[in-house]
Prior knowledge:
74% of the residues lie in helices and 2% in strands. It is an all-alpha fold. Strands 1-2 form a two-stranded antiparallel ribbon. It has a single domain (70-291), classed as MetI-like (MetI-like fold, Orthogonal Bundle). Helix 3 crosses helix 7 (150-178). It is built from 13 helices and 2 strands, in the order αββαααααααααααα. Strand 1 (37-39) and strand 2 form a beta hairpin.
Amino acid sequence: MQKTFDNRAWFLVLPVVLLVAFNALIPLMTVVNYSVQDIFDSTHRLFVGTDWFKEMLRSPRLHNALWRQLIFSGLVLLIEIPLGVLIALMMSKKSGWKTSLTLVLVALPLLIPWNVIGTIWVVFLRPDIGLLGHFIDSVLGISFDYPTVPIEAWISVMLMEVWHWTPLVVLLAYAGLCAIPDAYYQAARIDGASGWAVFRYIQLPKMRGVLTIAILLRFMDSFLIYTEPFVLTGGGPGDSTTFLSIYLVKIALGEFDVGRAGAFSIIYFLIVLAFSYVFYQALQRVGTGEGK
Length: 292
């Protein structure tokens, strides 16, 4: 018997396709259009082809911003993933109001708007009224001046990022741990397995899926970060915390050079896409190797 297909069902997804096209494809094509033109004003434009791409790829400022971005994203993954897993392991797996309250408290930083996060840490780090700033300056006797000292600006941005996004890793890791059947733990107790053996051979492999999601999400988000460090440091002192997103905004809005900004936006997009693909393939291979 030959099956019949009713293609009218595609009309149900047509609104979604149109919405995606409006929110993604049209802005993308606008950026592509800008990237190949030298725009003087709304009526005077000059086609330059790939000149802006060549200039941006050779730009030392872009290279420096890229290195800063890679270092920042690498540190974020090295700190947040182990810390999030550690906190999840310390949380109780029993259901009840205490566990629910703990999850709510852990997730609170994720509910705060990004621009407010930067403002909170600006106040928090002030030596006169901020708790952390006053503690460092008065109690520890350390002159912590992050607006003028690059290394202290980096420490401030990293502390803010870890505080803001480690809860996401905690929630994902906790969900992965809760999904592990008790039979695995019972077998481990019968075999006399140590805590490290349970983590190495039971918990970590079973969390592989959620940790893959956590690593990809945190890498992409940290690679695209803008609001929090811009509010806290403005990309300074100097260019020490000028990441790729801040550098892009400086070109587009500060210098109002939409041609170069358009070319850089496409380069930025391709960099994030390439790194995300490499991360995904590497994590998939690691998971396949462990599953054999």
